[in-house]
Amino acid sequence: MKIQIKPGFLFPTQFWTAELNENIEQLQKEAYLIRKNDKDGVVKSNSGFQSYHSKDIRDLNNLPGTNHLLKQIINAVNTIHQISRKGDLQLTNFWINISGKGSSNTPHTHSGLTYSGVFFIKVPKEMKGGRFLFYRNFNEADFISSEYMGLFKEGYQMQGYDYPINTISPKENLLVVFPSWVPHAVEINLSDEERISLSFNFKLNRTF
Ligand SMILES: [Fe+2]
């Protein structure tokens, strides 16, 4: 007797995007001001000679555009959370990345937090590389899945679930939010222009 094989799906992961309407020119000016006042920044997942990662930003006094942006992000992330869950979120930290040619961010998670995300402040006109990458898991972030699953057959039509990586093309004023445990990275910026983003983390204020 021929057996019937039924495919299923495990754990789809939600992420969210929103196009905001922020003053991008102002935000770009403020990003350079942040770098001017915190030249050394900090080294985290960022890699590359022309890669700048600010320390966590704590003082918004001279950053009205960034202050406005954060209010929009707080509203958006609370709205996302409250579709299905109880409780309020707290913005725990935020920082900027200014990525010159050759800069990238290696695969990582923001473990211990609830939601993380990125907002694109400056995207080179002719963006080459610099895409935001989501990985299904760290095995597939570190290895190419064909090394352990084998190559796809000739003529096979690949489906969404066959791809171990999802890519987001950066766009100015685009907000991307995802659960903090999802492995992610940024491709090398191959453009001559800088790419600027603001990243953030939220944690649930537990009331139970
Ligand atoms: Fe990250």
Please provide a written account of the structure:
The protein is built from 4 helices and 11 strands. With 208 residues, it is α+β, with helices and mostly antiparallel strands. The protein has helices spanning 24-37, 64-82, 138-142, 146-149, and strands at 16-19, 46-47, 51-53, 88-99, 104-108, 115-122, 132-135, 165-168, 174-179, 184-186, 195-205. It has a 6-stranded antiparallel beta sheet with strand order 1-9-6-11-4-3. The protein is globular. The chain has a single domain, classed as q2cbj1_9rhob like domain (Jelly Rolls, Sandwich), CATH 2.60.120.620. Fe (ii) ion binds next to loops.
Regions with little confidence, pLDDT below 50 for 5+ residues: none
CATH topology: Jelly Rolls
Distance N to C terminus: 54 Å
CATH class, named Mainly Beta
What would you report as the Rg, rounded to the nearest angstrom? 19 Å
Structural class: alpha+beta
Please state the oligomeric state of the protein chains shown: single chain
Q: From the coordinates shown, what is the CATH architecture?
A: Sandwich
Small ligands present: fe (ii) ion
Choose one word for the global shape. Answer: globular
Helix count, per DSSP?
A: 4
Give the fraction of residues assigned to helices: 10-25%
Proportion of residues in β-strands: 25-35%
Element string (H = helix, E = strand): EHEEHEEEEHHEEEE
The total tally of domains equals: 1
* Biggest β-sheet strands, sense, barrel: 6 strands, antiparallel
State the CATH superfamily name.
q2cbj1_9rhob like domain
Strands side by side in the biggest sheet: 1-9-6-11-4-3
